[in-house]
Specification:
Number of strands: 6
Structural class: alpha+beta
Radius of gyration: 14 Å
Helix content: 10-25%
Shape: globular
CATH class: Alpha Beta
Order of helices and strands: EEHEEEEH
Number of domains: 1
Strand order of the largest sheet: 2-1-6-5
CATH topology: Ubiquitin-like (UB roll)
Length: about 120
Amino acid sequence: MLALKFSDGGLIPVIVQDTKSREVLMMAYANEEAVQLTRTTGYAHYYSRSRKKLWKKGEESGHFQKVEKILVDCDEDCIIYEVEQTGAACHTGYRTCFYRTLSGDTIGEKVFDPEKVYGKTGH
């Protein structure tokens, strides 16, 4: 098994891609525990840098990511979760976090209203 190279802060970037459409859904970070939980449960787990804690994608929204495969880049310092996405990947309600162009045009599909899912304070 490959030895992942976590940053000095103990994190590794995770690119999340839809296993069927190949669309990039999001980018997040994982620590060693999150990667292990993902491997053992089959569902995507990450480490929140802002909340300083582990989180399972979908635990609040119900929009889970079933991980089909984990790929490792050539330097072993970045991984891809190939997932079957339930609902939306983005906490703003869009299917993917990459729903805007650099000029600010919205090109993505909004799947849910975040206020109804997370409340007025957002996520």
